[in-house]
Amino acid sequence: MRIFFAGSIRGGRQLIPTYLHIIDFLKSHDCTIISEHVASQVLEKTEAKMTEQEIFEKDTTWIEESDRVVAEVTVPSTGVGYEICHAVAHKKPVLCVYEKGAKVSAMVLGNTSKYVTAIPYSDKKQLEETLQDFLEK
Amino acid sequence: MRIFFAGSIRGGRQLIPTYLHIIDFLKSHDCTIISEHVASQVLEKTEAKMTEQEIFEKDTTWIEESDRVVAEVTVPSTGVGYEICHAVAHKKPVLCVYEKGAKVSAMVLGNTSKYVTAIPYSDKKQLEETLQDFLEK
User: Fold this and answer.
1) A8 interfacial to chain B (CB closer than 8 Å)
2) In this prediction, does ipTM exceed 0.95?
3) Whose CA is closest to A96, among A134, A43, A40, A41?
4) pLDDT in tens, A69-119
5) How far is CA B103 from CA A86, B50, B66, B113, in A?
6) B 60-89 residues inside an 8 A Cβ radius of A
7) Touching check for A23 and chain B: CB below 8 Å?
8) Between chains, do B111 and A51 touch, taking CB under 8 Å as contact?
C-alpha cells in the first residue's frame, strides 16, 4: 500500500519523533511511504534547493498517486490542511491522528466526508492500534 | 461582493487585530464578509455551542456561496489550509496575505492553481493596497 504521510513542516517540527514512529510502524506493515521526507531532520535544507512550485507539484502529485493518506494533525499546519482537502478531492481515505487534548481544527474533527477519519491517541500503543485498524479496513 | 475571510482559530488567535483590520477594510469597500466571526473575540464560545460537524458544514457551505476568499496565512492553521483548497476546488479566487518573513506553506506559496495568489505585506498600507488590487481584478 502506498501511503502519503502528512505532517507539519514550516508550521513547527517539534513532533518529528512521532512522525518517525508512524512512518516506521507503517513501513514495518508492508506500506511504502511516498513522503518519508516529512520526518527528515534535513528536510528544510533539501527543499531549500527546490522552488515553492516544485514542492507544491511534488506533494500534490504524490497525494494523487497514493492509495491512502495518514496525517498527524497535532501541530497546526496550513500545508497539512491543504493536503487533507486535496486528498479528499481525489477520493483518498485519510486518517488524521492527534495527541489527545490537542486543539484540532473543526475542518478535521467535523469533516463529514466519508474519506476522513480523525482519532486521538494517548500513547504510542493507542496510536499503533489506530494505524493498524486503518490498514486493515 | 461576498467574501469568505479565513484566519486561524484553533491554530492561534494572536492576529485578531489584523483580521479585524482586513475585514473592516473590505467592508468599507462594499464587500459583505460572510465569515466575520473569524475575528470575534468570543468566537470560541459561540462555536462551543455548535457541533464540529455543524462548524464544518457552515464554513464549507459559506466558501461555496462566496464570490472570493481572503485568507490571512501568517499563523499556521490546518483549517485555513483546508479552506483554501476547498475554495480552489470550487473555483473561487483566493488571496492569501501574510506578514513578510513568515514561514508560509509551499502549498500556498507554490500553489500553481490560477485561483491562488499569495502576497506578503510589511505594513498596513501595503496590506490595504493588496486587498484593493484584489477587489479591482
Assistant:
1) yes
2) yes
3) A134
4) 999 999 999 999 999 999 999 999 999 999 999 999 999 999 999 999 999
5) 21, 32, 28, 20
6) 60, 73, 75-86, 89
7) no
8) no
- H-run or E-run covering B106: helix B106-109
Out of A52, A59, A84, the one facing B82 most closely (by C-beta) is: A84
**CB-neighbour burial class of residue A3 (10 A; exposed 0-12, middle 13-18, buried 19+):** buried
Amino acid at A109: L
Q: Give contacts of A61 with chain B, Cβ < 8 Å.
A: none
φ, ψ of residue A130 in degrees (nearest 5):
-65, -45
Angle between helices A16-27 and A124-136 (to 10 degrees): 40
Secondary element (H or E) of residue A125: helix A124-136
**Cα B90 versus chain centre, distance:** 15
Which pairs count as long-range contacts for B19-28, CB under 8 Å and 24+ apart, including other chains? B19/B72, B21/B124, B21/B127, B22/B70, B22/B72, B22/B97, B22/B127, B22/B131, B25/B127, B25/B128, B25/B131, B26/B70, B26/B131, B26/B135
The one-digit pLDDT tens for each residue of chain B (137 residues) are 999 999 999 899 999 999 999 999 999 999 999 998 888 888 878 888 899 999 999 999 999 999 999 999 999 999 999 999 999 999 999 999 999 999 999 999 999 999 999 999 999 999 999 999 999 98
Query: Does the CB of A111 have a partner CB in chain B at under 8 Å?
Result: yes
Q: State the pLDDT at residue A136.
A: 95
What is the CATH classification number for the domain harbouring A92?
3.40.50.450
- Global pTM reads 0.97
* Domain count of the fold of chain A: 1
Range of the domain at B84: 2-136
Distance (Å, rounded) from C-alpha B133 to C-alpha A22?
44
